[in-house]
UniProtKB/TrEMBL annotation:
It comes from the Eukaryota. It comes from Theobroma cacao. This is BCL-2-associated athanogene 4 isoform 1. Gene3D superfamilies: BAG domain, Phosphatidylinositol 3-kinase Catalytic Subunit, Chain A, domain 1. GO terms for biological process: protein stabilization. InterPro entries: BAG_chaperone_regulator, BAG_dom_sf, BAG_domain, Ubiquitin-like_dom, Ubiquitin-like_domsf. The keyword Chaperone applies. Residues 141-168 form a coiled coil.
Amino acid sequence: MVGRVCFLTMKRLSSSSKRVVNNVVRGEIEWELRPGGMLVQKRNVGDVSSGPMIKIKVSHGSYHHDITVPAQSTFGDLKRVLAQETGLEPKEQRLLFQGKEKDDEECLHMVGVKDMSKVVLLEDPASKERKLDEMKRNQSILKAYEEVAKVRAEVDKLSEKVIALEAIVRGGTKVSEKKFLVLTELLMVQLLQLDTIEANGEAKVQRKVEVRHVQGLVDTLDNLKARNSNPFSSSCNAVSVTTKWEAFESGVGSLTAPAPLPSSTRITQDWEVFD
């Protein structure tokens, strides 16, 4: 008979009864073995022809859902239907009927669920806590993104000023040293602002990129400041290095030290100087 539940355990299944079950499985009716050795007819929730349909009133907090399922569905079947209505995965659901939580394997009609019966849906506490933690992390990441974006906007404005200042200095125009100091201080303020942002994941990467951007602008200002102070700093540095190497090669440790002048010559020259 359709919908008839066979209470057969594995121990009670004889070889002859097993053959009967195999024959039934090969027929139109398909059976499945539930945990604990219960053999029941396999049901498909979406198959209307599998039996009479019932409407169940499911209460989920302040929400109410009218769910229509085959009368001989299991609570696991009901959870799968509710997942589409509520967005809660079956493993995140707890179903209570008449004040008692029901297992997925329990059949609705076996525990007294009828048309217009009321079932309570609760979200699993562990699942709810995980979602709250994930929501907090997402909010934290979003906040970090927004804070980094604010700093980036300010740094971009300062970057334009650095570029303009660089064009002036490289053009040979003398610039007040105060302009370099002011821009450097403003960039350092943004660098400190980045340091106060708590970020994780991709937001942390974005913060690091912006920190390097600011540091690069500060280095550029330092180079421009040195160039502005001495437009010929490059050539002077080259002469200075050459001079140092000449002094080293003609001094202590050199391969050809300069020959000392005769002592008499030095005295004569000294007297001539005093005269």
